[in-house]
Amino acid sequence: MLTISSLSKAFGEKTLFNEVNLQINEGDRIAIVGPNGAGKTTLFSVLLGNIEPDQGHIRLQKNSVLGYLPQESAEIPDASVLELAVNIHPEIPELRRVLSLDSEKATKDETHDDGSAYARYEELGGRTLEVRAKKILKGLGFKESDFHRSLQTLSGGWIMRTHLARLLVMEPDLLLLDEPTNHLDLHSVLWFQHYLLHYSGAVIFISHDRSFLNRLAEWTVELKNGELTRFRGNYDDYMRLKMEAMEQQKSAYKNQQREIERLTRFVERFRSKATKASQAQSKLKQLEKMERIEAPEESQATFKFRFPQPKRSGQRVIQLEDLHHSYDSLNVYKGIDFGADRGQRIVLVGPNGAGKSTLLKLLAGVLAVQKGTCKLGHEVETGYFSQQRIEVLNPERTLMEEALDTEQRITEQHARSVLGSFLFRGDDVFKKVKVLSGGEKSRLALIKLLMNPPNLLLMDEPTTHLDMSGIEALIHALKQFTGTLIFISHDVHFIRSIAEQVVHVEHGTLRHYRGDYDYYLSKCVEEEARLASKGNTSEAQKSDQVTSKDSTSGRHPNAKERRRIEAEERKRRSTLIRKHQIKVDQIEHEISELETRQGALTEELEQPETYQKGPRIVEINQELQMVSESLKTCWSAWEGAQQALESSRT
Fold first, then answer.
1. pTM for the complete prediction?
2. Using CA atoms, how far apart are residues 1 and 344, in angstroms rounded to an integer?
3. What is the chain's alpha carbon radius of gyration, rounded to the nearest angstrom?
């Protein structure tokens, strides 16, 4: 579909990529990873034709359509949410106006049509566009009441969501997504992830969300030091393969260094002796011709520093009782209770607008309690981190000065290690705070909080503006943290690494799950299946239940009878689960075989000698197409089988 050949691009003395090659086929799911500043976003700009490469070629299959979601700063047209979402062709806004589909923008004398406008509108997708758009908008967190809101009234994050919806309605052959989960809440990320798994086109994406990368990527391409290196599999596969390659390189490097040392000693010892001079000269030539193996880079995943720890608080850290809160006429909470004990790690989850950030601000004292009580425990000190928390910084200080400005005594070397792990490296530590971007200031505020932490830490989306190594550094710091942590995040990997309890916030209520994120998900699946099963109960079954109840004069079964019924139900459910599990396993085995074959064919296609065989290229592409179609069918079957399995587990 898209072929990149010998592509190079540099800005001044910095080379972002140098004669790189990449083949993207139909249906591919490719993650582009690499350190901040490596050139990932620039690569997208070159593919889109917004930036000219210094050399090389980009070939896009004829009639293929590219779709692109930038990381930030999308256009804000004078339109409603739904209007932008369906605007996948230049003619659509005018056709909708003529057909009065956007009645608030149409006038009576402009609505006459001889049928041609309707025919053209249907040719471009017609009313199915609106159906698809509404479904996608809901998946991304919009309510029906939002569909006709002006984009001018939305925040930047919601505008980006609308552009993402438009892109998905458009259904391009190749999607280029730059940090697409940045502006989504957790529920929207999970919906979006599921949507892309079944998307018919190819997807290339940049993301720092490890769970998203692991769920979606079939190939991981690393852009680093001007080179593109392709790894089969998701992010965890990439890390494993990279570590294996690094170990192999380390071993080869050590062996070569020993050989260089041996040859050098021989030359130095015998070059002046007549009887050994020719041998010494031969060894010297061997040294000169030797292709040197570079020393492998040290992995950035190892963190050796320790963060200071807070003083010990009382057992009950914070307690909300009968708390009410509203914004003008909008009631967010009406009489909720919430409490946290020392050492707990609680994540707040729920749809956007449910009140998670409001709850965090109430706990932090950022918002005043309107009704009810908020009590802090013995010797509790709160610290609140949000993306706007930059007022703690002195604009005239350097980063190093800010990092060292803490009650805890730390060395400059320790401060450098911490700053480096959060993307401030080399001479960056001597920059003034006032020249930093908003994201950089947010990271520095996070460092300051961790260098002198309170014993109740409240964090709202702390992983924003961090790359993969920065997120791992934060996880490392919070795993050491001995205080109480309550946080909001849409990064599933981060949540899984840190959270020990989950509180679901929705419709002004709090539901506490006393287990980790996977426990919470399993309970959600059980609850959804139970509701679905309850909804599908037939009238005949209900009638049977009434008759049974009448026959026992309204009495419930005794303990013995209840145990017998429960045992029979467990046996029935176990049999059903086993049946569905066998089906899922069979489909997964078939998918595994197809993916293995797909990988072998792709690998063969990437070999230069394949192109010398002529007809073999056509055979490979035909078989790849067949395998790709079979995989789509299998994944669809797997989804149905998996849903049946989950439903049977109630």
1. 0.68
2. 50
3. 30
